[in-house]
## 1
Amino acid sequence: GNLYVSERLDREELCGESASCSVSFEALVHNPLNVFHVDVSIQDVNDNDPLFLQDSFHLEINEFTSPGARFAVGMAEDADVGSNSLQGYELETNRYFAVEVKETKEGSKFAELVLRRALDRESENSLRLVLIALDGGDPPRSGTAQLWINVTDANDNPPVFSQDRYRASLREDTPPGSKVLNVSASDADTGTNAHITYGFGKMPGKVLQKFVMDAKRGTITLKEGLDFEDTRGYTLLVEARDGGGLVAHCKVEVEVLDVNDNAPEITILSLSSPVPEDAPSGTVVALLNVHDPDSGENGEVSCELSGEAPLSIVASSGGSYKVNNMPGIPILNVSATDPDLGRNAHLSYTLLQGDTTVGHLFSINRENGTLYLLTSLDHEDQVEFSMMVQVQDGGFPPLATNVSVSVFVTDVNDNAPTVLYPHPNSTLTYPDVVAPGTPAGHVVTKVVAVDADAGYNAWISYTLLQATDPSLFSVGLHNGDIFTARQLREDDAPQHTLVILLKDHGEPVLSTTATVSISVAEMVKEVLTDLTDVAPANDPRKHVTFYLILAVILVSAAFFITMLSVGIFKCYKWRQSKELFNSSRSTTYRTPGPFHHIDAVRGGLTPPNFYHQVYLTTDSRQSDLLCKKPFTSSPLGSRQSTIRNGEPGLYHQIVGTASRLPAPTE
C-alpha cells in the first residue's frame, strides 16, 4: 500500500503561479474491493532564479534632471512562490542612483531608480550599473541585469575664449581685406549646445565700418583703410554664442602703426619783404611754421634754405623756424683767391653737409667765407668738429676746391665735482671704523670725487667744513684722504660725522659737499652690532662690508706675492750679472785717488762731483752706465733737491749699445 513518486515533480509546471498545489486521484484496493480518494499536496522549493525580462536596460537622463527624480526600470519574475519568490532589488554602489522596490496592485514587485545627486555630463557622460533581483530562499537566489544610463547634455556651459584680451598691430597702409587676427572659443557642451557663432558686440558705427567678423571661424578682417593720424587704435568687443544662447565676451585691441605717409606742411606766419640792405645781422626776415602729421621719427623735420642768399634758418619753439641774415658769432674766415678775371673769379663758399650735426651748429657766408657758430657748444659732449668747406668760382664749367676746417671746443667750468664715495644718495651708510688709541696721521677713509670738466677746471680740493670734533680728523687738500689729526683717546665720542667741502679750480668756482660717518670702536664687531639694530632685515647690502674686506685682503695678498716674485727675480738677475762680471775680462777702472776718477767712456778725468761706474761684459753689445749724484753740495745737486725734499741722492740709469773698450792706460 506504499505510494511512490514515479517521476520528478515540478510544482511550477503542475500549478503555475498558484499559491497552493496538489494532485488528486483515486486508489482501487482489492480484497476487499474498495476505492480511496488520495490528495497529494506539492510543496515549493527554491529551485528557480529571479529573471529579468531583458538582460540590459538603456536609459537617457538629462544632466539638468533634479535630484529625487524616479525612473522605472522594469520587473523581474520568479517562478517560485511564497518566501521563495522575488522579494527585492539591489543596485551596484555608485554616487548618483539608489534603487527602491515598488509593488503593483496585483502584488508584483518592480525596481525604481532614484536620482540622489545632480548629474554632470562633462565629468561623466555615461554610467554602467548592475541591477540585482533577490528571492527569499535559503540560500537566496538572484538574477542580474545591466543598466546603461546615458547622460544627455544640457546647455550648462557657456563658451570660453582662449584669451580674455587679444592684441594686434597693423600698419596704417595695410590694405582692406587683410586678416587682423583669429579669435577662438570652446564649449564643454555637445551637439547644438557646443555650436559657436562669433560676432561683434555693441560698438560705435565708426568701428564697425572698419572691421568684419567671420561668424563661423572667428576671423577678423580689415574692411576699410586705416589712418594713424585719425585714430591710433581700436578696441573691439567680440562675443561667442553657443546653440543654447549662452554668450561669452572678449576684447581685441588693434594698434595702428604710423607710416611716413605725410609730407611736412610749411606755413609762412610772417614775412618781411623787401629787406633793407643795411639790416643788422640777426634780423628776423620771416617766421615759418612746419608741421608733419606723422609721429615719432616720421614727424621729425629739419629745415634748410636753398638758393644763394645771405640768410639762414634757426629752429624756434613749437615747430616754428626763423629766417636770420647770418646770425651767431663769427669764428673763422675762410678765404681763397682765383687768378681768373670777371665772373670766372667770383668765388662762393659752401659748407658741405657731411655730418648732419655740423649743419645745425655752423653756417658760412657764401660771399666772404665767414664761418658762424649758430648755437652754444658743450666741451663734455664733443671736443672737436671737422667739416669741409668748398669754394667754387662762377665760370662754366665751375671749378671748385675743398678745404678741411677743424673747430676745437675749449672747456669752461660748468660742472661741479661729483662725489662717488661715500654715495650721496645711499639710504643706509656704513660708517668707517677706527680703534681708540690710533696714532695721528692714520688714514681712516677717503672721499672719492670726479669732475666732468677738463684741465685746471677739473682739479678738486678738499677741506673740512664741519665735524663733530674738529680737532680729531683732517682731510688731505688734494687727495681727499681723511686721517687722524691726533691720537684717539678713550673719552672721544664714539660717532663722528664729517662734512667735506669739494671745490674745483675753475672760474667761477663750483663746489659740492660729502658727508662721512666714522665710528670709534675697539672692535669692528661692536659697530656691526649697532648697525644690526638699525639696518633693515631685508637690506640687500648688509654683506657689502664683508665682501669689501675680503676683496682688500685678496688684492693685498696678490700685490705682496707679486712684489715678492719681482724681488726674487731681481736678486736672481743681480747675482747672474755679478757672476758674469767676475768671470769676464772687462774690468772697472778707477783711479786710486779719493777725488779723481777715470772716465772710462771718454778716456778722461771726471770732476770730483760725479762718480761713474761702467760695467762692460766680454761679449755683450749692451752695457749699463750708472751715474750717482754726489753727497756733497753743488749747484746741480741743489736744483735736483728741489724736485723732492729729503731725497739724499738722485740716480740716473742709461742703457745703450756699446762695443768693448780697450783698457785705459794709467
Note: Residues 98 and 305 are 96 Å apart (CA to CA).
## 2
Amino acid sequence: QEKRIFTVQGPYPIIRRLLRARGWVERKLPRTSRQLEQHCGDQNKQRLQTAPSNGGGKQREEEEEQHDEDPSGIHDLMSYLARDQLPNFIWTNFLEAVDHQLLQEDSVLNHYARVDAFTTKEGLCLSLQNLPWIEQADPNTFFPRCYRLGTMDDREAFIEDFRLTAARSLLKLALEEAGDTPVRTKQVPNSAKGACWHRSHISHPKHSTARPGSPLYPELVEEALEVCKQHLSVLQHEDIDRRTPSPCRTCIDWDRFLQQYYRVAHEGAGLVLTRQQRKQCQNLLQSLAEKLPQLDMEGKLNIWILKPGAESQGRGIICMTRLEEMLQLAWSCTAPSVQVGRWVVQKYVERLLTIFGTKFDIRQWFVVTDWKPLTVWFYQDCYLRFCSRPFSLHRLERARHLCNVSVQKWYKTSPDQDPRVPSDKIWSNKQFQEYLAQLGQADAWHQVLVPGMKAAILNTLRSARDRVRFRKGNFELYGADFVVGEDCQPWLLEINSCPTMSPSSAVTRRLCANVQRDTLCLVLDRKDNPTCSIGAFELIYKE
C-alpha cells in the first residue's frame, strides 16, 4: 500500500540493506534470474581471488555475505508476501537485465535508455564532435581530440591531425635541441640536404664548434615550418573561400617526413636550427597556442591511444606512436573481440600531472535525475586510481598508462615505484588536496579541477541529450574518468554507466558505500522531504 517494494539485480548488498532499513520489502527475482545473479557474483568473486591480492577480495566477500543476513527471517517472509507485487523501485547493473513487465507507470529505475550516446567511447566521440553545433562550447578545451576510425571522414581527419601534430612536435623538438647545440647562421651546402644527424654526433658549444660541411641541414624543420604556417592560416580563417589547400595536401612527401620525424622523436636523431628558424619556431608555436587549446598538453612525441569503441574496463586499449601501425591495427583481425572498424583513436595527454612520478586518474560520480529539464547532481567526493609502474612516455605498456582498477589488479608494484605511492593504488580526493597543498597549489582543486570537471560533464550531457531516451521518475548514477594536465586542468576520458561499486581499497569501500547511501537519499527520501540531507551531492545544473 505504501508502494515500498523493490528489486535489486546485481551485486549491490548496500542498496539492499539500506532499502530494508527504510522498511522497504524486496520482491525477489525469479529463480533463474537469482541463479544468474549468483553466478555473476561467483565469477566476480573468483576473478578477485585469482587477481593479485589488494585486500578487495575479502571486503567483497564480507559485503556479499551481508546481503543474506536475515537472522529473524522477517525479510524472507515479507518477500514471500510480495512475490506477486510489481516493484516500485528497481536498481540493476544493466538496463537490458530489466524485465519490462515488472515496470509500472510510476516505477523508479536507475537507468535511462540509449545513454550509449555518451557512455561508449564511440558515442562520446560523436556527441562531442557535434557539441559546437549545440552549445557555444569547444570540446577541445576539455576532451582530447578523438576520431572514429570506422568512418571515412573521421579516418581522413585523424590522418591529417597526426601529420599536423608531427609537424608541431618537430618544431618543439627542434627548439628543445637548440638549447644544447650551436645555432647555425651559415647555410649548409646543398649536398647535405635530407641528411639526418644523431645527437651523439652534435658538437656541444663548450667542447667544440661544428665542423664545416657537417650534415646539419635544417630541411625537415623548414618543411614543418611551412606546414604549420599554412595550418595557422586555416585557423585564422584566411581560407574562408576554401581555395587554400589543406596544410597536409602540400607537395611534402608525408611518408618520408613521418619516417624522419620518427627518427628524431623516438630514435634519438637530432636537429639543428638556423638562428632565423629558431625565432620562426618560437613565434609560430606561440601563435598556434592561441588557436589550439591542446597544443601544450599534446607534448612532442605524437602518442595516441587506440580504444575499442564499445568496450570497458580498459579492454583492448593500447598506446601507439606510428600512423601506419595504428591504421593497420584498426583494420586487422588481431583483436577478434572488436568489430572491424569500431576503434576510436584519441590524442594521449603527454604533459600530465603525476604523483610521485606515477600516472593517476580521477573517478568522479554524478547523477542525472531528469533530462527535460536537464538536472545534474555532482558528488563532492571522488577517488584517484594509480598505475603500478612509474610514468614514462618512452615505455608504453598498460601498467604505466591505464589506471583502471580492472587493469592494474593484474600487476604487482614494480621495484622502481616510489614507495609513497599507496600499496592499494587508491587515494581519496582529500589526500589529493593535501598533496596539491604541498606543491603550493592549495587552491587548484576548488578553483581549477572541480570547475573543469563540472563544465566537462555538463557540456557532454548537453551534446548527447537529444539522443537519450528518458523516462520521468528514473535516474542514473555515472562515473566520469579524468586525467590531470601539468597545469591542473582536467581532461575527460570517458563516462561510465553502472560504475563499479565493488571496493578495491579502504578508500573505495567507504566512498562507494557513501555514494550509494546518498543516491537513495537524493532519489527517494527527497521526494517526501525536500529539505532532507543528500550527503555529498550538489545540484550543479537545472535547466
Note: The chain has three domains: 1-30+67-109, 117-143+351-542, 145-182+215-348.
## 3
Amino acid sequence: MLLPQVEESVLSVGKFNTIVQLTAFSPFKSAQSALENINAISEGIIHADLKLFLETNIPPSGKKRKVVLGVADGKIGAAVQEELGVSCQTGGVVAEILRGIRLHFHSLVKGLTAQSASKAQLGLGHSYSRAKVKFNVNRADNMIIQSIALLDQLDKDINTFAMRVREWYGYHFPELIKIISDNYTYCCLAKLIGNRKELSSESLEALEEVVMDSAKAQAILEASKSSMGMDISPIDLINIESFSSRVISLAEYRKGLQEYLRSKMSQVAPNLAALIGEVVGARLISHAGSLTNLAKYPASTVQILGAEKALFRALKTRGNTPKYGLIFHSTFIGRAAAKNKGRISRYLANKCTIASRIDCFSEIPTSVFGDKLREQVEERLSFYETGEAPRKNIDVMKEAVAEASWSSGDLLGDFRFVATDDASEVTAELKRKIEKKEKKKKKKEKRRLEALATAEEEEKEMKAQSNGEASHLCLSVSFNENDEAEVVKKKKKRSISDVSENGVSEIPPTKKKKKSKEVMQEEAEELPSIVPEVTQSGKKKKKSKVMEDE
C-alpha cells in the first residue's frame, strides 16, 4: 500500500482490473432518489436502496470464507455493521481501492462514459448543495444580521460625514453650528443656503420648512447678515453642496433600512421585537449568529451577551462581573433605579429567552406572547418602585394562549401575519390544527372512559366471585360440658339454579388445596369474633356466634 509501485498500479486500468472485479452495480432510478440516498449517507443512515443492494450482493461469510466490507465513511460503516451484521473496514487499503474505483468507474461499467459520469456527479453535487443551503425565505434571519450590521455602519459613517460638512461649511457660516445641533438638519440647511450673502427674507419660509421652527429660522437669517465667516468661491460651494446632498441621501437611506429591519423582525422574531424593540432584538440575533443559536442560549448568557470582554476581565482580576450586555440599550434598564438595574436585567434576559424560543419554534409568527411578556416586565418595574405584586407567570401565559387561540372561527388578540400570500390559507391551516387537537382530546377521553368502565366491571366480577366463595363455607362452633371447643366445618352445597338466581357467576368445583397463612387470616377476619373468658379452673372459655345464612 505504501510502495510507489502500488500507487502507480492503481492509476493503470489493466493492473487495477487484476485486483478489483465488478460483480454488482445498481444505478439510481432518478435524480430525486440519488439525492435521498446521499442525504441519508451524509447523516450516517442506511437508505432502503443501499440496504437492499447490500443484502442482495454480499455473500454470506462462513468459517472458511470471511467477508469484509470496505467503507470510506466510518459513521456509515458502523451503521452497516450494526444493522446488517457485516464486518466493515475503513481507512488503509480501502481508501486506495476506492480511489481507483472512482478513477476507473466508467471503464468498469459497460455503457458508461467518463463524460456522462462527471455530468451525473456534478448534477448530484449541485442538488445536494442546494438542498443543504435551502431555507425559508420569509423566515431568514441572515437578512436581519446583515441589515443591523449595515445600520450600525451607516450611523458611524453619517456621523463622520456630517461632522466633515460642519467643519467645511463652518469656514463660511460659523454661527449656524451653534444654532442647529442636528446633523441631518444642518446638512439640509448647508445645501439650501449655499452662499450666506444671498440669504434674504424671501427664503424665510423655506428655512422654516427645514427647521420646523420660526424663531430658529429668524435667528439664522439675522446671523447670516452679521456673520464673521470668510468668503467662499463658487467651486468650493458646489463641492460642499454635493457632499451635503450625499449625506442627506445616506440619512434617508438609513430611515428606509430601519423600516426594512422592522418589517423583517416582525416576520422572523415578532415576540422578541415586541418585548425589547427591533434594533436591540436584531443586535442580539446578530451577536448570537442566528435566532436558533439565541434560542439555545440560557438566560444568564443572554443577559451578558455583548459584554464578554468585561466578563473575562472581571474573572481574571476577580472583580465584579457585568450585570448586562446588549440588553442595556432597552428602555427598561434605563428606567430602573440604580440598585434595581441588575435585578431587572436578569428578569428581562429571562423574558428575552422565552420570546426567542417562541419565535424560533412557532410555525406562525405572532406578537401576542411578546406583548404579554412586555407587560410582565412593566409590572416587575412597578413592583420594584411601589411594591405592588405582579401577576404570576402561569396566569399571564394562560391569557396569552387564550388570545392566540381561535374562538368561533375568529382570531382573538392582535396577530400580525406577515409573509403570507393569502390570509385564508393561514386561517384554514389554523382551523385544521385545532380540529386535530380536539379530535385527539376526544379520543383520549373516550379511551379513558372505556378503561374506567372495564375496570368497574372487573371489580364487580371480583366482588361477586368473593361473595360466592364466602357463602360456600359456614363455620359453626359448639361447646361441650367439659368446655372443649369443637369447630365443625360444613360446606354449604348449592345447586347451579340457586347460584344463578342469586346473580353469582357459576364457580367450577376445585380440588382441595393447602391454604396459605394470608388466606387463613382473611377467613378468620370474615368469621365473627370469638371472645375468650377465663373460668374458675383457669381454662379459657370461648363463646362464638354462628354465622347467619343469607
Note: The chain has a mean pLDDT of 78.
